[in-house]
Amino acid sequence: MEVSGILAPSSVNAALLSKFQLGERLLVEVMNISGKGEGSIRVKGQSLNALLETSTQVGEKFWVKVGNLNEGGLLLIREPIPGKLKDSLSVPPQVQQVNERGLPNNQTIVALVKTFPTTTLEVFSALFGSMQGTPLNSELLTYLKKAIPQWSSLSGDNGKDELLKSLKRLGLNYEHRIHNMLKLDQPAKEIEKQSLLDTFKGVLLKAIHSQNNEDTNDSDNPLVQMLQKITGQQLWLKTGALDSAYLILHLPLLNQEQLIPAQIAIESSRKGSKMDEHHCRIAILVQTQELGEIGIDAFFNEKTFTCRVLSDDSLLPRLLEVAIPETKEKFIKLGFQLERVESGELRQNHEFLNFLHGSRRSGVDILR
């Protein structure tokens, strides 16, 4: 569990709020959990509505401290489990983030983990635009187009498989495959080696090493910037070392020869070594031609889920009314029932944007 809190809009009445003191230690019991990460808790003999961490389970009891009181708002911060996140308050935020991801405290890794969530996918389109007409650009562009998924392919029945294939073609499991390659016999090893060279990361590494008189560690080198983006993605594609799994995916999509940037963040309970798709939160931010940026914030609980669609375009609510019936039918085929769809303003939803940038909801936020 994280120790630092993320504030979300919340409120309780003044009379109840007066019963709490900043820093006070309390025992919380989770009574029930509904969609959108909401539920009810019992604390100080009172039953209260609250926003909960994704990994929280019904019946769970844990100690919290009152982390914030303001204008009827109350944040309860869950205490770390003994033996985990030791001395986390004394660790610099960027180092703590690396520790939470289960990565070594290496200067290069710290920098990549810190910068990746806030760097955009424009690095791809900007780089190609700056190298128009060069043979190097043509080869990289060809491999990138082969690697990234078509927008239309993700909406079909095989969308999940297409996404996984794309991640492999980009080379996001490049080093893992090298490790496994060492265990193969010579003929199989050569086949795998050639397959690695055909990934986008393999072609990018080859292009960087072929640049004469160029510093391969120069952060101003556009190819190095692209490699840093991919390497940072590899680090954030791991699910971390905390009780709940969390990952970020920045993925360019191809739509009519145009690169469309998409950002995805997923937090879930753990199901063995995998993420639990039936108890998770999925946040998506994608750039559209007609409505600009669209955010989708979905909470899955068993076979049902709720969804909030976020945009700064006033046309969104009317478009949703048209799209909801067909959307419900598609999710029924996937085994999920869409219970509720809401709309809201994107730029005012700071908690959603923070979640996309690597900050998870921590502790318990009390609702109205």
TrEMBL record:
It comes from the Bacteria. This is Flagellar hook-length control protein FliK. It comes from Desulfosporosinus meridiei (strain ATCC BAA-275 / DSM 13257 / KCTC 12902 / NCIMB 13706 / S10). The lineage of its organism: Bacteria, Bacillati, Bacillota, Clostridia, Eubacteriales.
